[in-house]
Amino acid sequence: DDVRVLKFHSGLAQSRPEAAHIEKFAERVKEKSGGSLQVDVYHAGSLGLKEADMLRILKGGMVDMALMYGEYYKRDAPALASVYAQGAITESSQHLELLPTLRSIYKDAYANWDIHTIGGVVAPVFDVGLHCKEPVNTLEDLKDKKVRVWSGHLVDTFKKLDISAQVIGQNDMYLALQTGVVDCAYYLSTVAKTVSLQEVTKYEAYLHPWAASPWMFGVSDKTWDSLTEEQQAALAEAGEETWAETRELAVDPAREEAAREERKELGITVLDPFSEADVNTFVDAAMAAWKEMAESAGEEGVGYYETVSALAREQQK
Amino acid sequence: MALLLSKTLDRVTHALFFIGVCAGILMALMILSSALLRYLAGAPLSFSDELAGLLFVTLAFTTFPEVMLRSEHIKLSVLTDRFGPVLQRVCRFAAAIIFITFAVVFIYESWNFTDFSRQISSRTDVSGLLLWPWMALMPASLGLCLLIELRVLFRGLRGDWAGLMGGEQ
Amino acid sequence: MSWLILSGSLIVLLGTGALLGAALGLTGFILLHFQANGATALAINSAWNLLTEFTLSAVPLFIMLGDILLASGVSTRVYNGLTPLFRCMPGQLLHTNIAVCTLFGAVSGSSTSTAAAIGSVSYPELKKRGYDPAAVVGSLAAGGTLGLLIPPSLSLLIYGATQDVSIGRLFLAGLLPGLMISSGFLLWIYLRSRFGSSHIAPEHGEGFSWRDTGAGLLQIWPLPILIFFVLGTIYMGIATPTEAAAMGVGVSIVIGFLWGDLTWRELWNAFKRSSIMFSCIAMILVGTVILAQAVSLLGLPRGAVDMIAELGLGRYGVLLMVVLVYLVLGCFFDGISLLLMTLPITFPMVVSLGFDPVWFGIIVTLLMEVGMITPPVGLNLFVLSSITKGEVGVPSAAYAAMPYWVILLVAVGLLTLFPQIALWLPEVFS
Ligand code: NA
Ligand code: NA
Fold it and tell me: Domain named Tripartite ATP-independent periplasmic transporters DctQ component: which ranges (chain B) (predicted)?
């Protein structure tokens, strides 16, 4: 009879693999609630909402649910950007060991914004590479190049290595490379094809695995409190199942290999990866920049940094 | 007394407009120097996009009241132009009510927006500038616009319809 | 219900002759309050986000550039120089609007900055020379939309990135249709001036003369310098479009002092004038973005598109419905947000029927262009009406843009009949 419809905001393009998991989650909710609850997923930010506003929006109950990513909320919750950073892991499998800690940090932090967290999508650990117009696979070669990165933390990291980097949004990256505003993009190699990167850069070299915060499913407390217990249970179970399922898929060497082959067929020259010495130099710089970022975010940020980085260093050994 | 208040309103509006024009010039200068620095020195100003954005929002909101004062904001008058003088006055009155309603809601919400940002001390990503003083321009600007419209309406009710209809007294 | 409130409220609020920005914004507030659980607070987020966006700050910069050129007499000299070249062609300098918009479209990704940039220089000059103001505005509103189709294009970038279609192929595909439409616009100006009942361009007694043309063109030597700083720097990768706009401001000041009659006082006045002009546009932008936020939060576009899927039509039936829905949505909506909201449904729907994804990207972009000049909510119309300081109202601007509107729709038809117009170039180059 009465079907309760929840609006779910996701900023990810529908072509991203994560989007399919969210759709699956919506199906699970429908099934588990016996059809009394329907989650309408709006991909690619099609509700017209901006990520930076999401904490306020959920707090005010202006949308029911959202796919949350801690690093987007730097303006309103700076400490959340310091929870996890590039350089925290050097092998994909280390990510899985850090996950429970990350999840509980985000759960508590979002709760302070009147947001209830129910599982989420464990982001796949993708290869991160330098995608360049010329062959580059050493930090030395990068020194006279301009590099596109996606965060302030990475700008600081490269600065420590004497490399000039700037933040350019994903939508502007293609043109910036085409016109030569930058020479290289630091990007998720695995999904580079979806943004046509092969058309503007012909070389890539693997640097390290992507330390991605998990995408959490946030429900506004206003919405959550208005649901029946059965509906709440349906949401929680579905979120948990999606979490478990995506956790299994997160680390997948075969997927990375297949994606690399596909890029080779598209005409990309895949160079030897950056040397171990280079990776260590990069990781040291990234950890130092991470610490500074956490310190500038105040006590809370330092707390997050210390918890996660201690665990990360243990794993790296 | 009323005259003094009215004069003050004009002065504040002009002063704000002056700030707005300067913000626009500063924005152009900053974007220009950032581009030149990147090209000549290979080192762009990392905060320039952010600050340019803030100056941009300043340019917009500080100039609204002045444009309101000159009554140069765009209206759709295709229908009302064909009405008789009485109906035109009714429409002008309705238009004032529409603007006042809009402004009141906007002031209320933007005040909350600003106040909340102040409480959690929201800052810009790169340069860490406090945001609420810039956000406060929104309620302040619409507040001035509201006063200006109320004055026009007040004058109209006292019989000065010319001011109410066009602003060109 | 939401549709009813939307159209009812727009008609009533706009009908009273209220400030455009306030009427649009209040409609948005009403929708947010009554249909979206009182989410009026969201309006402020969207207004703030829009007006702090770096890319949009190109708009006031281009208006400044135009005002400085005007104040220094540089634009007058340039148009004087160009006049002999166009003297014998019916429509005369109106053609420059389309030509310059095409050129500008080749470096700017957005339609609003194209209209603002060209409009603020061209409108006062052409009006002074006796061209029909509405005709000038119509050609500018239409010419401005070319910025969206001719690469680089914001709309094609977003289409490619969200739907996983090659951006390079999309850009190539946009080129020929863009030039085709640009020629269509030029042809219309020619025909309208040659055979139209009323004059839209001033009359000239003299015939074409190589001497005058040469002398005229020699006079405008600073123009290439300016073009280099605005267009060349973008192509050479030295600057983003916003930075190029700022460079243009700097260069126009230098040219204005050295070659024109610019004084410090005039410069300050130019900054003041452009601030006022931009302020008018910003007020409308605030109203538009609040309305857009309300409509997208309610998922209205998605609802409209979902309806088509349920009709069970054939291949071309579905396409026709998609086009119709975009035309209707284009009345209330502009640009990129409309793309983001509808593509997740229209893209799979159309592509699963066997239409080419690259081709559909061009069609959708064309329909976005149409929306920019469709009243009541048409950003290009608003921007240009502001540039004329209301001398040409939004309705007359819309009326003057109608022939171009038809040309854009004819182009959609032609592209459907001959998809090769779009697909030929990408095929040759791949
Ligand atoms: Na373009
Ligand atoms: Na429109």
Answer: 27-158
List the alpha helices (DSSP H) in chain B: 2-41, 48-69, 85-119, 132-135, 137-157, 161-165
Return the bridge partners of A4, or none: A37
Distance from CA of C63 to the nearest CA of A (A): 23
Count, residues in chain C: 430
Mind telling me how many Å the CA of B34 is from chain C's nearest CA? Answer: 8
Q: C140 C-alpha to center of ligand 2: Å? A: 16
CA A238 to chain centre: 21
Q: How is residue C407 written in tokens?
A: 């040309």
Q: Is residue B110 in a domain?
A: yes
What range does the domain containing B74 cover? 2-164
* B53 part of a folded domain: yes
Residue whose C-alpha is closest to residue B16's, from B70, B60, B52 = B60
Which B positions 2-41 lie with beta carbon below 8 A of chain C? 17, 20-21, 24-25, 27-29, 31-32, 34-35, 39
Kindly report the backbone phi and psi dihedral angles of residue C263, in degrees, each rounded to the nearest multiple of 5, phi listed first.
-125, 165
Predicted-assembly ipTM surpassing the 0.85 threshold: yes
List Cβ neighbours of C133 (8 Å cut-off, separation of 6 or more).
C123, C127, C388, C391, C392
Q: Is residue B169 part of a domain?
A: no
CA-angle at C268, arms to C263 and C273, nearest 5°: 120
Q: Which residue of B has its CA nearest to A297?
A: B128
**Which conformational region is residue B128 in: left (phi greater than 0), alpha (psi within -120 to 50 degrees), or beta?**
left
Measure in Å the smallest separation between the Cα of A54 and chain B Cα atoms: 14
Q: Which residue has the higher pLDDT, A100 or B38?
A: A100
**Dihedral angle of Cα B144, B149, B150, B156, to the nearest 10 degrees:** 150
Contact of A74 with chain B, judged by CB distance below 8 Å, is answered with yes
* Sign, CA torsion B12/B14/B19/B24: positive
Helix/strand/coil (H, E, C) string of C78-128? HHHHHHHHHCCCCCCCHHHHHHHHHHHHCCCCCHHHHHHHHHHHHHHHHHH
- The Cα C359–Cα A133 span in angstroms is 28
- Express each pLDDT in C368-415 by its tens digit: 888 888 887 788 888 888 888 888 888 889 999 999 999 999 999 999
| Contact between A199 and C337 using a beta-carbon 8 Å cutoff | no
In terms of CA atoms, which chain A residue is nearest residue C168?
Answer: A199
| Eight-class DSSP state of B36 | H
Considering only CB atoms, B98 lies closest to which of C13, C51, C268, namely: C13
Neighbours of chain A (3+ CB pairs under 8 A): B, C
Helix (H) or strand (E) holding A242: helix A229-250
- Three-state secondary structure string covering C2-69: HHHHHHHHHHHHHHCCCEHHHHHHHHHHHHHHHHCCCCCHHHHHHHHHHHCCCHHHHHHHHHHHHHHH
Q: What percentage of chain C has pLDDT greater than the value 70?
A: 92
Question: Do C41 and B109 lie within an 8 Å CB cutoff?
Answer: yes
A45 CB neighbours in chain C (<8 A) are 340
List pLDDT tens digits, range B115-168: 999 999 898 877 889 999 999 999 999 999 999 999 988 888 887 665 555 543
| 8 Å CB contact between A214 and A121 | yes
Residue spans per domain, chain C: 19-428
Q: Is residue B64 part of a domain?
A: yes
Token pair of B11, please? 């002065």
Helix intervals (H) in A36-91 = 54-59
| Residues of chain C found within 8 Å of residue A40, distances taken between Cβ atoms | 299
Domain count, chain B: 1
For C151, residues 6+ apart whose C-beta sits below 8 A from its C-beta are: C106, C170, C171, C172, C174, C175, C178
The parts of chain A modelled with pLDDT lower than 70 are 1
In 3D, which of C201, C272, A16, A65 has the Cα closest to residue B59? C272
Cα Rg of chain C (Å, integer):
22
> In this complex, how many residue pairs, one in chain A and one in chain B, have their CB atoms less than 8 Å apart?
22
